[in-house]
Specification:
heterodimer, A: alpha/beta, Aconitase, domain 3, 3 domains, five-stranded parallel sheet, 15 helices, globular, B: 204 residues, seven-stranded mixed sheet, 8 helices, 7 strands, 16% strand, binds iron/sulfur cluster
């Protein structure tokens, strides 16, 4: 029977099957960070258990590390400090490989995994963080888990799981200039909604997806979770193999060849069954921007803020009204031209070197508008270093952007980088819920180029006018 | 993990759709290294004013719902971030059962792992239960997991579905890890079969 990419990875990892169809699923890679692991290690210790396979496990600090240049002098915030220290004690006690703040390889866990060659095609990858879906761009089955499951994987190297359903999202045709992976995924979420993928693993396919570089693909899979999916997947191809070759933890020499031979068997078979299929035309996707407080409230930058009065469903209408009031926007107003206070370029969605280059291309020779605070937070210490060496960082610094250390930063209100109440932010992150970037903060999700355009003009702006 | 068999309790109505895990427990309360003590921060932004005082109109601040053990919620409850602090916060408050027309996947699974029973019921049924819940302490709902029914104060019963394995674990208070460790031989065998090119992560 023809199988999908998801089916193949799943089948290859079933260790055992319980009567009711629940599978004991083997986990190849377990990424651990400071926020969702303390209680899991606590549980292991209480039960006298060990980490079953330290060679499948890697730990990194990202969520609540400060991102200022002085951070190695110490973390001020007591609770963040406690979580970081607790992780350090746990990795030492249990023997897990760890990238601390002082290590250039430190960064956001979903940037670090692919960058280090830790996340590879055909693998099962988990992490106590919903954006683990990111690694699906490598052609791996990657999904977020809760802390109980973190403990379960640490203790058993497996999870108890039932297979998800298969969903195919195909983006046909070619992308217009200025349109990126971020715009594709925002457009997809706008079309299928934040519950559109519930219960499914979404495989992203089609010419527009194939044409993306790995950074763009990682962005798309990153936000599969915002479409409600359990995971996102993109079939591995020559772009994937070229990206992996030579990365520190990737197979080398003969092993690499053997791996590629296996990886080439992974793409979905002709005629494989999908429970749901959605098709988009790339030519119809513009640079997108969210106007509301969930990622499905998205419009093209050329669009206008929708009017709740046009919404027949009462609950939805009330929700729209609430979103408009929170975001301080008027129905029918053009979204372009909306003034911003803060610009955030970073997060596991858009903090890779390619993303920073997109921003630099727009900002080059221009300056951040007066009154706007613009931050660039590279996804890892190595991205930062590369940007500094190749001059991307200097372009952004010259344009008046703050250039910071790697971490989650202003993606979530958990570390010193936060919005203040009422501030409006053009952000390359993935979530625009109320208060996500700080209590009362207003978030507009968009691509790195669009974020840079907002920074230099001081307002939401069609990036295509600047390139 | 505490067993879940039959629960008769006050149900709190929270008739809001898309209550995400940021609403259930805002990110700023995640910096804990323990599983307990989060109940006071449950729904913090909906429940407290900026100065820390209670918002009188929020359901859990009303006297009759302070001891609620069941939550009747709106569509897509628990969407957003996968933080398990969300079920921990509910549990620490005392909630053992959430009833809604739909749930986000990760949250739904996390509930079972923490001894909370999430129940999906059709929208019209949830509307009736929401009406019951609005009666506060005058109306208690009964959730019978063995029989898989929710019983209204008037005796009317609604059947619900639950994964048999999750049901078994909840009824017996079984922890997943213990169950999985019964498969150790199969895990050993699987690891022995892994291809030799598969790289290992070793100390840096
Ligand atoms: S960058 Fe944001 S979304 Fe990504 S892992 Fe960090 S907090 Fe989560």
């Amino acid at each position: 029977m023809p199988r999908t990419l998801f089916d193949k990875i799943w089948d290859a990892h079933v260790v055992d099957r319980l009567e009711d169809g629940t599978c004991v699923l083997y986990i190849d890679r377990h990424l651990v960070h400071e926020v969702t692991s303390p209680q899991a290690f606590e549980g292991l210790r209480m039960a006298g258990r060990k980490v079953r396979r330290v060679e499948n496990t890697i730990a990194v600090v990202d969520h609540n590390v400060p991102t200022d240049a002085d951070r190695l002098k110490g973390v001020n915030e007591p609770e963040s400090k406690l979580q970081i220290e607790t992780l350090e004690q746990n990795v030492a006690e249990f023997g897990v490989t760890y990238f601390p703040m002082s290590d250039a390889r430190q960064g956001i866990v979903h940037v670090v995994g692919p960058e280090q060659g830790i996340s590879l095609p055909g693998m099962t990858i988990v992490c106590g963080d919903s954006h683990t879906s990111t690694h699906g761009a490598m052609g791996a089955l990657a999904f977020g888990i809760g802390t109980s499951e973190v403990e379960h994987v640490l203790a058993t190297q497996t999870l108890l799981q039932k297979p998800a359903k298969n969903m195919l999202v195909r983006v046909d045709g070619k992308l217009a200039p200025g349109v990126t992976g971020k715009d594709i995924v925002l457009a997809i979420i706008g079309k299928i909604g934040t519950a559109g993928g519930t219960g499914h693993v979404i495989e992203f396919a089609g010419e527009a997806i194939r044409s993306l570089d790995m950074a763009g693909r990682l962005t798309v899979c990153n936000m599969a979770i915002e479409a409600g999916a359990r995971a996102g997947l993109i079939a591995p191809d020559e772009t994937t193999f070229a990206y992996i070759k030579g990365r520190p933890f990737a197979p080398k020499g003969k092993d690499f060849e053997a791996a590629v031979n296996y990886w080439k068997t992974l793409p979905s078979d002709e005629g494989a069954h999908y429970d749901k299929v959605v098709v988009l035309d790339a030519a119809e996707i513009a640079p997108e921007v969210t106007w509301g407080t969930n990622p499905e409230a998205v419009i093209p930058i050329t669009g206008t803020v929708p009017n709740p009065a046009d919404e027949p469903d009462e609950t939805k209408r009330a929700q729209m009204e609430r979103m408009l009031s929170y975001m301080d926007l008027k129905p029918g107003q053009k979204i372009a031209g909306t003034k911003v206070d803060v610009v955030f370029i970073g997060s596991c969605t858009n903090s890779r070197i390619e993303d920073l280059r997109q921003a630099a291309a727009v900002a080059k020779g221009k300056h951040v508008a007066p009154g706007v605070r613009a931050l660039v937070v590279p996804g890892s210490g190595l991205v930062k270093k590369q940007a500094e060496e190749e001059g991307t960082a200097q372009i952004l610094i010259d344009a008046g952007f703050e250039w910071r250390e790697a971490g989650c930063s202003m993606c979530l209100g958990m570390n010193p980088d936060k919005l203040t109440p009422g501030q409006r932010c053009a952000s390359t992150s993935n979530r625009n819920f109320e208060g996500r970037q700080g209590p009362g903060g207003r978030t507009h999700l968009l691509s790195p180029g669009m974020a840079a355009a907002a920074a230099v003009t001081g307002a939401l702006t069609d990036v295509r006018e600047l390139i | 993990m505490d067993k879940f068999t039959t629960l008769t309790a006050v149900a709190a109505p929270l008739n809001v759709a898309n209550v995400d895990t940021d609403k259930i427990i805002p990110a700023r309360f995640l910096k804990t290294i323990k599983r307990t003590g989060l109940g006071k921060s449950l729904f913090a932004d909906m429940r407290y004013n900026a100065d820390g005082s209670e918002k009188a109109d929020f359901v859990l601040n009303q006297e009759k719902y302070r001891k609620a053990q069941i939550l009747v919620a709106g569509d897509n409850f628990g969407c957003g971030s996968s933080r398990e602090h969300a079920p921990w916060a509910l549990l620490d408050f005392g909630i053992r059962c959430v009833i809604a027309p739909s749930f986000a996947d990760i949250f739904f699974n996390n509930c079972f792992k923490n001894g909370i029973l999430p129940i999906r019921l059709p929208e019209d049924v949830c509307a009736k239960l929401m009406d019951d819940a609005a009666l506060g302490t005058n109306a208690r709902l009964t959730v019978d997991l063995e029989r898989q029914v929710v019983v209204r104060p008037n005796g009317e019963e609604f059947a619900f579905n639950v994964d048999p394995f999750c049901k078994h674990c909840l009824l017996n208070g079984l922890d997943d890890i213990g169950l999985t460790l019964e498969h150790t031989a199969a895990i050993d065998a699987y690891e022995a079969r892994q291809p030799s090119w598969q790289p290992k992560i070793h100390g840096a």
